[in-house]
Design a protein that fits this description.
Number of strands: 11
Structural class: alpha+beta
Strand order of the largest sheet: 1-2-5-11-6
Helix content: 25-40%
CATH architecture: Alpha-Beta Complex
Order of helices and strands: HEEEHHEEHHEHEHEEEE
CATH topology: paralog of FGE (formylglycine-generating enzyme)
CATH superfamily: paralog of FGE (formylglycine-generating enzyme)
Shape: elongated
Largest sheet: 5 strands, antiparallel
Number of domains: 1
Radius of gyration: 26 Å
Number of helices: 7
């Protein structure tokens, strides 16, 4: 039988009080550490934001003053619309020029771009662009179906987390059934970067031309078409529904990637690729409808020497760049300089693609 504790009640009461005091001291220490960490994180975020603002202001004052949008009104062979086959992309020529590529300070401050996102879009830098032809719109579901039938392609395992009217399981959703109703003239979605490149190779073989995904600089050059705002019509988000199929008030029941546009376009998901107003280059839905794969590897910030070369762009890398935002994206994502990293085998009902056709040498 264990020996009875002979310590009196006063001793036990004292020990209890000491334990309570120790616990209180530990709690106070933890709270103080939490406050200190919070202050440190806030300071880091403020420092990052200040550094970003200084970089943006300095680059804008030098770079944008030299922009020359007048070439977009030039009449040359780049304005010719061409199509190599009935289901091939309708192509519009894009002139050569010099792009101020990246995030502008006005856009950053107007939309309160998060520091992590802003860092992906800096530094603002010059990119030299050669002339090329690009699809007037995204590759359609009908065009991709011809390729899929020819190759016996069955694609599933598509991410539908952007929100769908009838939630499809990821294991069953694919380009044929992305989780919402589509028609043949809608952009194909639920296609990976790898599959988009395979389609381009197939189309090149079929037509004898050289098709590929656009490089980032080419994509932004075509999307801006000589403009400098967050969007090609300017910086007014309330006007977006006249130009963009994005996450508007019609999509309020569809969880968007960021805030809704402050207008109502009456569209919840994808729409006709040739609908809506074109940008100054004559291109549809460079912003919104379906986000678009580009050829390049994702980097945290741009290479100071410029964009990746053709050979570098083809190297294996863990993430490729998606541009333009989609039907489920608001003003932070659906704009000209926004960059989104995705694995090359990733499929989403937000993401499709358009193609570039290289011009023959003169």
């Amino acid at each position: 039988m264990p020996e009875k504790d002979k310590r009196g009640p006063d001793y036990l009461r004292l020990r209890y009080q000491e334990r309570r005091q120790a616990m209180g001291a530990r709690a106070a220490l933890i709270a103080a550490i939490a406050v200190a960490v919070g202050i440190l994180l806030a300071w880091i975020q403020d420092s990052q934001r200040q550094s970003l603002e200084e970089m943006l202001e300095a680059r804008d004052s030098v770079t944008l003053a030299s922009s020359t949008p007048s070439i977009w009104s030039a009449r040359n062979r780049s304005n010719v619309v061409i199509q190599d086959c009935p289901n091939c992309p309708e192509l519009i020529g894009v002139p050569a020029g010099r792009l101020a590529m990246g995030l502008r300070y006005e856009t950053y401050s107007l939309l309160d771009i998060p520091a992590r996102q802003a860092a992906l879009e800096l530094p603002l830098h010059w990119a030299e662009i050669e002339a090329f032809s690009i699809g007037r719109s995204e590759v359609t579901k009908a065009a991709f179906a011809e390729y899929a039938d020819a190759k016996g392609l069955e694609v599933d395992d598509c991410d539908t987390s952007a929100g769908v009217q009838t939630k499809a399981s990821r294991g069953l959703a694919g380009w044929q059934q992305p989780g919402f109703q589509q028609f043949d003239n809608h952009p194909v979605v639920c296609v990976s970067w790898q599959e988009a490149n395979q389609y381009a190779a197939w189309l090149s073989e079929k037509t004898g031309q050289s098709y590929r995904l656009p490089r980032e600089a080419e994509w932004e050059w075509a999307a801006r078409a000589g403009t400098q705002g967050a969007w090609f019509w300017g910086n007014d988000a309330e006007r977006a529904c006249g130009y963009v199929n994005g996450a508007s008030q019609s999509g309020a029941q569809t969880p968007p990637q960021d805030a809704l546009f402050p207008c109502d376009d009456g569209i919840r998901f994808t729409t006709d690729t040739n609908s809506g107003q074109t940008n100054p280059a004559g291109l549809n839905h460079m912003i919104g409808n379906a986000a678009e794969w580009t050829l390049d590897c994702m980097t945290t910030g741009y290479n100071p020497e410029g964009t990746l070369s053709s050979s570098e762009a083809q190297q294996n890398c863990p993430e490729r760049v998606v541009r333009g935002g989609s039907w489920s994206d608001g003003p932070v994502t659906a704009r000209a300089s926004s960059r989104e990293p995705r694995a090359p085998d990733y499929r989403s009902n937000r993401i499709g693609f358009r193609l570039v056709r290289e011009l023959p040498p003169e």
